[in-house]
Amino acid sequence: MGHVSTKPYVDLSRAEWSALRERTPLPLTAAEVEELRGLGDVIDLDEVRDVYLPLSRLLNLHVGATHGLRSALNTFLDRDGDETDGTPFVIGIAGSVAVGKSTVARLLKALLARWPEHPRVELVTTDGFLFPKAELERRGLMSRKGFPESYDRRALTRFVADVKAGKPEVTGPVYSHLIYDIVPDERLTVHRPDILIVEGLNVLQPALPGKDGRTRLAVADYFDFSVYVDARTDDIERWYLDRFRKLRATAFQNPRSYFHKYTAVSEEEALDYARNTWRTINRPNLEQNIAPTRGRATLQLHKGPDHKVERLSLRKL
Ligand SMILES: Nc1ncnc2c1ncn2[C@@H]1O[C@H](COP(=O)(O)OP(=O)(O)O)[C@@H](O)[C@H]1O
Ligand SMILES: CC(C)(COP(=O)(O)O)[C@@H](O)C(=O)NCCC(=O)O
């Protein structure tokens, strides 16, 4: 017998991974990819073909296998499927601020919805579960936005648990980058999707211990598959600052934008603010909270300096 690696991950180069696409057809056009791309992200058809099509094929296999397991459970329970019918397959997507999670999530949503077995794919971002600005101020958490404690974790976990339990209609709060706050009169509604994608900085965090020492469940306990979007911290910082520069020329121009004030000062002054936010909030959150959860993901995508995925690590144990 040859050497047996006990590492939980199998590491694949981009070329090795892209060969696993088999005959999965490319269902998106260049124009559709363009529409899904976030500000500053580089995702073209090559990237979709080489990286995201094999992932969509792997996920399709996982969905099928999970259905098989559920029907085995139903046979065991002798309940004719009522326990697990309509249970969606739940995917978590984690990573730093500005690493490009939302582009990965939107792309997967579009690709997965093209499979006839699971056409209804819903996407929620965890920013909706941040405490409203007034509550963050009351708790002294305005400089900890994005840290685990700045979210209503109980509400997020309940939301995903309700969707997974097959509730016909589940609603959740909505965050706006424009006003930098939860939108008071807006809710999003999810109707029994085949697949639910949950994207956010902290989705792989383990549960906090309950007050009485009992174990609680975290949102990650409901995931059937998870992806960690990984890159070097220096690259992510550059993407964050580049995006801030672009937002200053676009979204911040809106007088209602919370960041509108940074259009009135010089670019250098505005960038000083962004550098400071990166150094005091987003980088410490990455280092202390987000990166340590990387080893919990089913798949790690390792991006190079140009946003292109260079290597992948897939959980095998
Ligand atoms: N201040 C802002 N104003 C408007 N849009 C923003 C602002 N900050 C971030 N965004 C947008 O919000 C989305 C999510 O960003 P983020 O949470 O940093 O995650 P990621 O870059 O990993 O997708 C991105 O599409 C980004 O362009
Ligand atoms: C809204 C966020 C906390 C991220 O949300 P999430 O990933 O949970 O959907 C983040 O993008 C943010 O606004 N951070 C605050 C610090 C900053 O302005 O960069």
Automatic annotation (TrEMBL):
Residues 90-234 form the Phosphoribulokinase/uridine kinase domain. It comes from the Bacteria. GO terms for molecular function: kinase activity. It is found in: Cytoplasm. Keywords: ATP-binding, Coenzyme A biosynthesis, Cytoplasm, Kinase, Nucleotide-binding, Transferase. Pathway: Cofactor biosynthesis; coenzyme A biosynthesis; CoA from (R)-pantothenate: step 1/5. It catalyses: (R)-pantothenate + ATP = (R)-4'-phosphopantothenate + ADP + H(+). CDD domains: PanK (cd02025). Its EC number is 2.7.1.33. ATP binds at residues 95-102. InterPro entries: P-loop_NTPase, PanK, PRK/URK. NCBIfam families: panK_bact. Belongs to the prokaryotic pantothenate kinase family. This is Pantothenate kinase. It comes from Streptomyces albiaxialis.
